[in-house]
Structures are given as structure tokens and as C-alpha cells.
């Protein structure tokens, strides 16, 4: 199993006993949405994808067709203010795509971190040149957030992307006190 999937499963198990009544899959796709929907079946999930990103919209809509708890929303997280509060926000392989849609990594990270949530999960590739892991820790300190769990998993089969090979996935489980 890929490291990012292992970390997501592990974090979701960790908060299973909490009262999670609303979830945002920020930067949705088949992997994150199916893992979240399986772990929290019956809980409403907003699946947000960048407007017009048909790579993801179609697969996410396919999953939503069979699950009445999932709402698919096309919106730019950096452009629109997300007013709604969620118990859990998941940013699973979101931050590395900031520049793909004209945003900077720092802006997207700050947008996500300053949303309203009880728990926030951030998972990315350590080797992704578009991702700066140190900034995540700094941003948590800036906004007085607690890192409940930090994880690093080595992929048995490194994942080859366009401009990097993902040997490790890292994850943060963040709590707003
Ligand atoms: C690599 S995919 C993530 C895949 C998904 N989490 C999964 O596990 O299958 C990145 C996702 O982030 C979304 N995304 C990137 N920048 C975004 C932004 N500024 N606002 C909203 N969604 C964004 C893309 O549309 C895409 O759905």
C-alpha cells in the first residue's frame, strides 16, 4: 500500500472515537474520498476540487453517485473564503498542486491552516519540490495549533511523478484547541 494511504488510514483510526459530523476533502480525488467515506460512512463529506479539473471531477462524481452523503464542489480554495466549519479537513496530496492552478504553496497552506476545523490532516510527498515541509510546522506555530501526530512512511515502491520520485510520504494530524 502507498505510504500516503497508510498515513491517512492511521490518522483516521486515531480520531475515530471523536465526534466527527462534517468533513471537507480539500483537493479531492478517488483515493482520499474513498478512504474517508469508508472510515466515516454516514458522515456528510464536501469533496472540493479546483474548478474545471476534469481529471478529478469525474472520478469524484462517480463515487458521489453511489453515496448520498457526498457533495462535490468546484472551487478555488485560495480564491474563495471557506466560511463553513468542519470537524475534519483532509488535505491529501493537495499542497503540491498549488502552482498547477496559479497559487503559491505558502498561500494555499495558509488558507488551509486558517480554515475552521477541529482536526486537520495534511499528507504529501517529502521529495516533492513544490512542497516545503518545514513551512507546515512554522505555520502551526504561528497559528498556535497542536500537532497531535506526525508520520513518515517509506514507499516500498517509490512513486514516479513528472518531476520527482516519491520515496517518502509525510503526514501531520493537527488539532485546534
Ligand atoms: C493530486 S490531487 C489530490 C488527490 C486526492 N486527494 C486523492 O487522494 O485522490 C490534487 C487535488 O487538489 C485540487 N486542488 C489543487 N489546488 C486547488 C485549489 N487551489 N483549490 C481547490 N482544489 C485544488 C485538485 O483539483 C485535485 O483535486
SS summary, helix count: 5
Task: Determine the strand fraction and express it as a percent band.
Answer: 25-35%
Number of strands: 7
**CATH homologous superfamily caption:** Vaccinia Virus protein VP39
Helix and strand arrangement:
Blueprint: H1 3-14, E1 23-26, H2 30-39, E2 45-49, H3 54-65, E3 70-74, E4 85-92, H4 105-113, E5 116-125, H5 133-142, E6 146-160, E7 165-175
Parallel strand pairs: 1-2, 1-4, 2-3, 4-5
Antiparallel strand pairs: 5-7, 6-7
Helix pairs in contact: 1-2, 4-5
The protein binds S-adenosylmethionine.
S-adenosylmethionine is lined by residues 27-32, 48-50, 53, 56, 76-78, 92-94, 97-98, 101, 103, 108.
List keywords for this structure.
177 residues, alpha/beta, Rossmann fold, 7-stranded mixed beta sheet, globular, binds S-adenosylmethionine
Task: Provide a brief overview of the structure.
The protein is α/β, with parallel strands linked by helices. Helices cover 30% and strands 33% of the residues.
Task: Explain how this protein is built.
The chain is α/β, with parallel strands linked by helices and 177 residues long. The protein has a single domain, classed as Rossmann fold. The protein contains five helices and seven strands, in the order αβαβαββαβαββ. It has a seven-stranded mixed sheet with strand order 3-2-1-4-5-7-6, with helices on both faces. Helix 2 links the parallel strand 1 and strand 2. The chain is globular. It binds S-adenosylmethionine. S-adenosylmethionine binds at residues 27-32, 48-50, 53, 56, 76-78, 92-94, 97-98, 101, 103, 108.
Amino acid at each position: 500500500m502507498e505510504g500516503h494511504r497508510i498515513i491517512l488510514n492511521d490518522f483516521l483510526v486515531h480520531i475515530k472515537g471523536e465526534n466527527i459530523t462534517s468533513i471537507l476533502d480539500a483537493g479531492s480525488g478517488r483515493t482520499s474520498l474513498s478512504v474517508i467515506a469508508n472510515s466515516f460512512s454516514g458522515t456528510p463529506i464536501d469533496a472540493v476540487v479546483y474548478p474545471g479539473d476534469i481529471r478529478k471531477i469525474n472520478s469524484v462524481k462517480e463515487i458521489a453517485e453511489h453515496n448520498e452523503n457526498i457533495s462535490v464542489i468546484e472551487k478555488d480554495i485560495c480564491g474563495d473564503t471557506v466560511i463553513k466549519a468542519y470537524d475534519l479537513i483532509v488535505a491529501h496530496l493537495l499542497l503540491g498542486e498549488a502552482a498547477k492552478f496559479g497559487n503559491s504553496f505558502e498561500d494555499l497552506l495558509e488558507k488551509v491552516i486558517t480554515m475552521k476545523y477541529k482536526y486537520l490532516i495534511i499528507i504529501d510527498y517529502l521529495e516533492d519540490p513544490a512542497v516545503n515541509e518545514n513551512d507546515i510546522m512554522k505555520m502551526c506555530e504561528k497559528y498556535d495549533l497542536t500537532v497531535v501526530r506526525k508520520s513518515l512512511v517509506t514507499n516500498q515502491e517509490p512513486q514516479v511523478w513528472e518531476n520527482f520520485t516519491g520515496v517518502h510520504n509525510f503526514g501531520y494530524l493537527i488539532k485546534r484547541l
